[in-house]
Amino acid sequence: PSSHPQIEIRSTMAESWNTSEDQDFMPGSIIVPAVFSLIFLLGTVGNGLVLAVLLRNGQVRYNTTNLFILNLGVADLCFIIFCVPFQATIYTLDGWLFGSFMCKVVHFFIYLTMYASSFTLAAVSVDRYLAIRYPLKSRDLRTSRNAAAAISVIWVLSVVFAGPYLSYFQIVHYNGVPICVPIWHNQSRKVMDVSTFVFGYLLPVSILSLAYARTIKFLWTSVDPIETISDSKKAKRKVTKMIIIVAVLFCICWLPHHVVILCFWFGHFPFNKTTYAFRLVSHCMSYANSCLNPIVYALISRHFRKRFKQVFTCLLKKKKKTTTRVHVVAVANTPTGFYVGTTEVCHINDESGR
């Protein structure tokens, strides 16, 4: 058990809850799946809308910030699809029923998307700083091609850092029940977990904190008579505010997860009801981050609200559009007789067609 803390947590908490007045009640088996279901629903719809808005009419073609937001949406959507449904079953089923391959893949995607999100937030913080502090000088650097190259580097680094998790987790049978747990020795696991905290959280958070601190200082202290007359500065402030809120939510949501791991390795982390509840909260918070970004976009950005409405309107029109079908009969002479074929022509009104 000492080499597999997840098994010890599971067995200890099962014993502690079974000694309560209601032996059949396991709060985690009800609350967490419900929370995960809500996260899955909101995250799938929200991030799907974000991708639809950005990809529709070439919204990301010449805007580096939109490219990074698109990448963030892709990472969140991958996390929701490949991780949330499988992890929710941990609290409702007795063991891991999806085999050794999915045990590895699910945890790989958890950390792959976490790295991709944190690196993307760090990159977009630098992008916003350059756009605001050096709007003219940074034009040659802040191109869609360079942004796409940066996104490629982000995913390559994410694969490199998350790759070891493919061998980190394995199926272990505990009392005849298959459980997906870490199988590395304690020292190797300690190095891996600390490295994940440093490179996947501490370093990106430090970069974006420094970049946004300098950005905010410049926005609120500089005076540009040209931009004061126009609405350019106001627009930049709104975009920066939206991205800062997204970054802060990422820091807050993933912090408890890393605190639990660091406390386990370097502090005091007894296996009891209190730590179990804190572990559930940290689990839900880290997963909830994947569905919060579209809500922030909708609340802060008038542009996104407008585009969201357009996507919904387009979907409704597709359902309600009427078509007039005209059947044209084509008759051709053949050596052996007649060949009769029908060609269906669909007439759609111009507005719906667009």
Automatic annotation (TrEMBL):
InterPro entries: Galanin_rcpt, GPCR_Rhodpsn, GPCR_Rhodpsn_7TM
Compartments reported by the entry: Membrane
SMART domains per UniProt: 7TM_GPCR_Srsx (SM01381)
GO CC term (a single one): plasma membrane
Coarse class of the protein's main subcellular location: membrane
SUPFAM superfamilies: Family A G protein-coupled receptor-like
Domain G-protein coupled receptors family 1 profile span(s) in chain numbering: 46-297
Gene Ontology molecular function, alphabetical: G protein-coupled receptor activity
Keywords of the record: Disulfide bond, G-protein coupled receptor, Membrane, Receptor, Transducer, Transmembrane, Transmembrane helix
One Pfam short name: 7tm_1
CDD domains: 7tmA_Gal2_Gal3_R
Keyword Manganese appears in the UniProt entry: no
Membrane topology type: Multi-pass membrane protein
Transmembrane feature ranges: 30-55, 67-88, 108-126, 147-166, 194-213, 242-268, 280-300
Family recorded in the similarity comment: Belongs to the G-protein coupled receptor 1 family.
Protein name: Galanin receptor 3
Species assigned in the record: Latimeria chalumnae (Coelacanth)
Name of the coding gene: GALR3
